[in-house]
Amino acid sequence: MNPKPETTGDYGLTIHPNPAKTEITVSIGNSKVSIERVELYDIFGKMLLQQNFNKSQGVVSINSYSDGIYVMKVYLSNGKVENRKVVKQQK
What we know:
Elements: E1 6-8, E2 13-16, E3 23-28, E4 35-41, E5 47-55, E6 57-61, E7 68-76, E8 81-88
Antiparallel strand pairs: 1-2, 2-3, 3-6, 4-5, 4-7, 7-8
């Protein structure tokens, strides 16, 4: 089963699939704003990944991480930061 992408916030931020097995697509629906970078944190607050995009969509690989709950920080070109919970789940 592939869950429907969840779009949240004023900027049309979409993170899918969630839960994910190997990668997560991050996109923004507002054409006036782009995604500058994405950071992924474990539940203890340790940064695991930082990836620059500078565009409206990108893919984050989570294949090398253990199953669990993570926090994704999405930095937008207008200076806003959106935080989202993401789940890495193999089954």
